[in-house]
Automatic annotation (TrEMBL):
Occurrences of domain GST N-terminal (ranges): 1-83
Entry superkingdom: Bacteria
Gene3D superfamilies: 1.20.1050.10, Glutaredoxin
Leader peptide range in chain numbering: none
CDD domains, per the entry: GST_C_YfcG_like (cd10291), GST_N_Ure2p_like (cd03048)
Annotated ranges, domain GST C-terminal: 86-211
Species of provenance: Duganella margarita
Transmembrane segments: none
PROSITE patterns xrefs: GST_CTER, GST_NTER
Name assigned to this protein: Glutathione S-transferase
Length: 222
């Protein structure tokens, strides 16, 4: 049994999708990020960084794992699924996973802040982060022109990147001119496990954009 501590964010959805794909039994605990639950002492004992998602594997002496990328690797290695066994194949998956962790997620996250939430429109910042997000999308599109998935078979690399890229409209970045990326987005969106994982937990609508912007600036998920 795995306890998943999460919220309705791209980083949270990475893990709920992976759990659904792997058909692992889990209990979902939705944290209220606006209320600061992720900074409470009980959660800091699980994740000292105070961000979602995090898991506790009850079958492994209550072993806690934080950081979404680390969780994906842990689950893949635990089950022997969504990650090749050979070292070259594993390296390819990890390369594209790190591409998301170090590039796609941070750039789109900043695009969200400045495009959607920042109290004033700072156009150079908006252009910077939307432009870098689009550049990364072009890298994905070029790679996907020659590959069905990012690293051989469908893997945690696809899950991690898809969880962010499919929200491109929210970041103000189009993919209309990226046909291979569009094909990949649609193929993954059609997977039943993805459709189950993307609604875990249900999204809570907020009406205070200033509060949301403050939360995103501080970075409440990884």
């Amino acid at each position: 049994m795995i306890d998943l501590y999460t919220a309705a964010t791209p980083n949270g959805h990475k893990v709920s999708i992976a759990l659904e794909e792997l058909e692992l039994t889990y209990t979902l605990h939705a944290l209220d990020l606006m209320a600061g639950e992720q900074k409470e002492p009980w959660f800091l004992a699980i994740n000292p960084n105070g961000r979602i998602p995090a898991i506790v594997d009850r079958a492994e002496d209550n072993f806690a794992v934080f950081e979404s990328g680390a969780i994906l690797i842990y689950l893949a290695e635990k089950t022997g699924e969504l990650m090749p066994a050979d070292f070259k194949g594993r390296s390819q998956v990890l390369q594209w996973l790190m591409f998301q962790m170090g590039g796609v997620g941070p750039m789109m996250g900043q695009a969200n802040v400045f495009h959607r939430y920042f109290p004033e429109k700072i156009q150079p910042a908006i252009d910077r982060y939307q432009g870098e997000s689009k550049r990364l999308f072009r890298v994905l599109d070029a790679h996907l022109a020659q590959h069905e998935y990012l690293a051989g078979d469908y893997s945690i690399a696809d899950i991690a990147n898809w969880a962010w890229v499919h929200t491109h409209n929210w970041s103000g970045v189009t993919v209309d001119d990226l046909p291979h990326l569009q094909r990949w987005l649609a193929a993954i969106a059609a997977r039943p496990a993805v459709q189950r994982g993307i609604i875990m937990p249900p999204r809570v609508e907020r009406t205070d954009p200033t509060t949301i912007g403050t939360m995103l600036e501080k970075g409440q998920s990884r």
